[in-house]
UniProtKB/TrEMBL annotation:
Gene3D superfamilies with a match to the protein in the record: lambda repressor-like DNA-binding domains
Protein's UniProt name: Helix-turn-helix protein
Organism (species): Kitasatospora viridis
Highest taxon listed in the record's lineage: Bacteria
GO molecular function, one term: DNA binding
Stored SUPFAM superfamilies: lambda repressor-like DNA-binding domains
InterPro entries associated with the record: Cro/C1-type_HTH, Lambda_DNA-bd_dom_sf
Pfam families noted in UniProt: HTH_31 (PF13560)
Residue stretches making up the HTH cro/C1-type domain: 13-78
Length: 140
C-alpha cells in the first residue's frame, strides 16, 4: 500500500475530475477501460478509498491508462500526479501553484508540432494583450 504525506494530487485530480464529469463512483469505474488491453482494472471501491484518502495500492500503468480514459485526461497528467503522491517524486517543474499549467503541458503532448507552434503563438499574443490591458487600467 502507498504511504503518502499530506500531498494528494492524484486523489484530488480524480475527485475533482469525476465531479466535473458528473459521474458516480460506479459510472467512473465502468468507464475506466485500458485502451491497450480492453481490461477494466479499476473498481468502484478503489476509487472511493482513493478519494477518501484511505490507503490504496499504487496504480500500475494499465490502471493509469484506464483512469485516463475514464476521466478523459492525458495519461501523462495522471502519471505525473501519481508519481508525486505514491512515489514521493518531485515534479519535473513547478510552474504553477495549482494544476492549470501542468494540465496544459500534458495536453500539449497530444498536439502535432505545428499545432503546438500555433498554440504557443496564441499564448504569446494573449499574454501581451493582458499586459497591455493591465497597463491601460493602471493609467485610468
Amino acid at each position: 500500500m502507498a504511504e503518502h504525506d499530506t500531498e494528494t494530487p492524484f486523489s484530488d485530480l480524480v475527485r475533482t475530475r469525476r465531479a466535473e464529469l458528473g459521474l458516480s463512483l460506479r459510472a467512473l469505474a465502468e468507464r475506466c477501460i485500458d485502451p491497450e488491453t480492453g481490461a477494466t482494472p479499476i473498481t468502484k471501491g478503489w476509487i472511493e478509498r482513493l478519494e477518501k484518502g484511505e490507503p490504496v495500492l499504487t496504480p500500475r500503468l494499465s490502471e493509469l491508462r484506464a483512469m485516463a480514459a475514464g476521466l478523459q485526461l492525458p495519461l501523462r497528467r495522471l502519471q505525473d500526479e501519481a508519481a508525486v503522491q505514491f512515489l514521493g517524486m518531485q515534479r519535473q517543474a513547478e510552474w504553477s501553484g495549482d494544476s492549470t499549467v501542468r494540465a496544459v503541458v500534458a495536453r500539449m503532448e497530444e498536439l502535432t508540432p505545428e499545432e503546438r507552434a500555433d498554440l504557443a503563438q496564441m499564448a504569446e499574443l494573449y499574454a501581451a494583450q493582458q499586459v497591455a490591458r493591465r497597463e491601460t487600467s493602471k493609467g485610468s
